[in-house]
């Protein structure tokens, strides 16, 4: 049993909750860039919240169902058509054998999630089905979808809670601008105080050169570093340090020109200083921002970041409880 890919979309890949536990070996977690979007799609389709689904970026795929299939699409409000007819987002639907699904673009948000009842039946790799394209790991042959691919599904793909939908009070909001909260890091002292102030006061624009590895930001003022003699082993770039670890969400500033927020496919360490780390819940917000979106960075303490995480996890659990019932 399978789903045939007629058109792959701009950047579609299989993702689940992520491949945790191997970052110290240089293997990033990958996984969904929007935990709420993946959770909603899966629960509507009758799956566990972190089941492998299709993450569609900016422009979704066109698919042919080779058997009756129960599915749900959540996340960014992209257009969904079944045999050319519009069908609702955030609703469990039944596609009959031979029908075609088309997921188009969206004016708000960047990623939607297509969950199939029973999940996408690709192999587990290090405990996850998520795609890590740079390492050709997981997902469908370790890469983004291509025309002609056949996505394997489980034998119970035609069984699910058809008609189940997301209650209005849980529907997420999507915006073209956002605030990203940042915990300052151990290397922020490398910047001048004026540059620290300007980083947090300027408005930054997301570059088109952004993906699952990292988001690049433009239009803010150049950031200046305190002069120093580079330590042995560091390069001449003023942002260079002797190698250090990178948490997911770390903010690099190569040459002080274009900040880069590392995301779920990022490397685990390197020789650029990082001025801080975006809090985990705001990384989900970032994953739904398209190129051109405007962002302000806001400084928070570690204690505040932990409280933000607890609030996010509580809301996510409330969502799981509501849809599971």
From TrEMBL:
Transmembrane segments: none annotated. Pfam families: CT_A_B. It comes from the Bacteria. The keyword Coiled coil does not apply. Residues 24-316 form the Carboxyltransferase domain. The keyword Cell inner membrane does not apply. Keywords: ATP-binding, Hydrolase, Nucleotide-binding. Gene3D superfamilies: Cyclophilin-like. One of its GO terms (molecular function) is ATP binding. This is Biotin-dependent carboxylase uncharacterized domain protein. It comes from Xenorhabdus innexi.
């Amino acid at each position: 049993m399978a789903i045939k890919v007629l058109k792959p979309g701009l950047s579609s890949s299989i993702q689940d909750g992520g491949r945790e536990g191997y970052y110290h070996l240089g293997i990033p977690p990958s996984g969904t860039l929007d935990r709420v979007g993946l959770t909603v799609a899966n629960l509507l389709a009758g799956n566990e919240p972190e089941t492998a689904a299709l993450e569609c970026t900016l422009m979704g795929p066109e698919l042919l169902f080779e058997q009756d299939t129960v599915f749900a699409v959540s996340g960014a409000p992209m257009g969904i058509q079944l045999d050319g007819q519009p069908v609702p987002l955030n609703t469990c639907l039944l596609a009959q054998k031979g029908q075609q699904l088309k997921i188009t673009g969206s004016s708000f948000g960047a990623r939607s999630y297509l969950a199939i009842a029973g999940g996408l039946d690709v192999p587990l790799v290090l405990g996850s089905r998520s795609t890590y394209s740079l390492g050709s790991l997981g997902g469908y042959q370790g890469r983004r979808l291509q025309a002609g691919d056949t996505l394997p599904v489980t034998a119970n793909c035609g069984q699910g809670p058809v008609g189940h939908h997301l209650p209005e009070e849980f529907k997420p909001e999507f915006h073209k601008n956002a605030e990203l909260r940042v915990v300052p890091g151990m290397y922020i002292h490398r910047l001048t105080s004026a540059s620290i102030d300007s980083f947090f006061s300027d408005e930054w624009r997301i570059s088109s050169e952004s993906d699952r590895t990292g988001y690049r930001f433009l239009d803010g003022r150049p950031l200046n570093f305190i002069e120093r003699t580079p330590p042995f082993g560091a390069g001449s770039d003023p942002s260079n340090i002797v190698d250090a670890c990178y948490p997911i969400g770390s903010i690099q500033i190569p040459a002080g020109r274009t900040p880069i927020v590392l995301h779920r496919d990022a490397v685990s360490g390197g020789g650029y200083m990082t001025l801080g780390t975006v809090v985990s819940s705001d990384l989900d917000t970032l994953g739904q921002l398209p190129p051109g979106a405007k962002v302000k960075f806001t400084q928070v303490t570690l204690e505040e970041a932990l409280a933000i995480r607890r609030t996010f996890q509580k809301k996510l659990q409330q969502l799981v409880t509501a849809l599971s019932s």
